[in-house]
Amino acid sequence: MSPREPGAPAATPLATPLTFKPGRIAVYLALLVLGGLVGVAGSLAQGGWFPGGLVLALLATAGLFLGGLYATGTQLGLGAPAAGWLIATIGLSMGRAEGDAAFAAGAGPLVYLLGGMVVAVMCATMSRLPQPGTKSGRLGK
Q: Which residues contact 129 (CB under 8 A, 6 or more apart)?
């Protein structure tokens, strides 16, 4: 049983549907949890060691986002840790009814929150994975 008709053109990678296998789902869930852990660790590091901790936390988020992108080869590999990071950092920034909050007042937490979102958008839009099946444009090569 062939997936296409004999005379039909071959499907491009963009036209093929995504298939979610249990292993791939487990990888995306692990990236989601890892994104949450990096968000919590970054929120503690940026407040504890202010200038250096903020840079270290933003570099860790960029490394995780790009690592997820290249490990899975899909944009969803970047989106899963970014979603986990965003859920963790927004949850920590909300505070409690007693007035306790994980983030202190000041510019550092704002730079971490907005900077992490900017890093996620930059990683998603500027990094391009090599497309499978690309061939030389020259004839006979």
A: 69, 70, 73
Burial of residue 100 (number of CB atoms within 10 Å: 0-12, 13-18, 19+): exposed
The three-class DSSP label of residue 36 is helix
Inter-CA distances, 74 with 14, 59, 70, 71, 82, Å: 11, 21, 7, 8, 13
pTM score, whole prediction: 0.72
Q: Which residue has the tokens 């005379």?
A: 7
Instruction: Identify the DSSP state of 5.
Output: -
- DSSP string computed for 53-79: HHHHHHHHHHHHHHHHHHHHSSTHHHH
Report the Cα 137 to chain-centroid distance in Å: 33
Tens-digit pLDDT profile for residues 22-70: 888 898 999 999 999 999 888 888 877 778 888 898 999 999 998 898 8
Taking alpha carbons only, the member of 3, 15, 12 closest to residue 132 is: 12
Counted residue by residue, the chain has a size of 141
Instruction: Provide the token pair at 138.
Output: 């020259």
